[in-house]
Amino acid sequence: MKSLHKHYRIADGQRFELASVDPADTCGIDDADRGRDLRKQNTEALLELQDRLYAEHRWSLLLIFQAMDAGGKDGTIRDVMSGLNPQGCHVASFKVPSDEELDHDFMWRYLRRLPERGKIGIFNRSYYEDVLVPRVHREVMDKQRLPPRLVSKQLWSQRLDAIGNVERYLSENGVVICKFFLHISKQEQRKRLLARLDDPQKNWKFDVGDIQVRRFWKDYMRCYQDAIRATASEHAPWYVIPADHKWFARLVVSSVVTATLAGLQLDYPRIDARKIAVARKALRATP
Ligand code: ATP
Ligand code: MG
Fold first, then answer.
1. What ligand is nearest to the CA atom of residue 205?
2. Residue among 251, 252, 230 nearest 239 (CA)
3. Can you tell me whether residue 28 is helix, strand or coil?
4. Which among 5, 121, 112, 125 is positioned nearest to 63, based on CA atoms?
5. Residue 202's pLDDT band (boundaries 50, 70, 90)?
6. What is the DSSP letter of 7?
7. Fewest CB within 10 A of the end CB: N or C in the chain?
8. What is the CA(97)–ligand 2 centre distance, in A?
């Protein structure tokens, strides 16, 4: 599916409206089995692309996943990883910041986990949390220990500018960035949270805090929209993906990752033919 990655791509967010994306959309693909077949094709292509990325050792790929609770990040990340060579990729999950992390600027903990050249880094949540959670819940902001005179009305636009600048800097240094917002509806979230309660094997995933956060749904959507508007760019596009159907969200993500790597026109490094001839001769001369 060629155009799927373009369909949900936002590279200029100025007029972006989150309400314009229907979480239940499947872009005309009504059949989940067909979606799975298409995804399998992507997965096969992905392994070779990753091999080239690793061999070429110049670019790195950063995949950022954001979603409301039960939005399907974990399953989608598992799905992306399943098609990759584990040696060339790693996942960093960002939870509530620790005391040590809170003793630094907000970007500190993320910058330490960036992928090296040749590798794919997956962020399960990211620095975008810092323009969401403390913005919606002011008491969380208090814990960030910023000097009070720096906490002004401009704080959020300053942070969004900082994020935009960091992403530009990274892209100029060979880090290719794709940002995914897995967009679920509030109703679908309720269904998934209830399933966590009903299924003993999913009970452990349930967090009472998730129910409280539901009361702030609109605030979160507003903050997400703001963040996407401020930080969607050609070098670090957002993909706002309808995620009420898990198979569809996974298909779009696999299409984006495949298309992004293919766009880099990766190639295996060429080794001097004379060097190969010398090595072959040396090897043949040994028992
Ligand atoms: P699951 O889908 O299994 O619930 P999760 O990603 O939600 O996975 P949790 O263990 O629930 O994982 O912890 C993540 C929590 O940490 C989220 O509520 C998130 O909003 C919060 N969090 C992450 N980064 C920050 C941050 N910078 N400031 C405040 N809260 C944060
Ligand atoms: Mg959670």
1. 1
2. 252
3. coil
4. 121
5. confident
6. H
7. C
8. 14
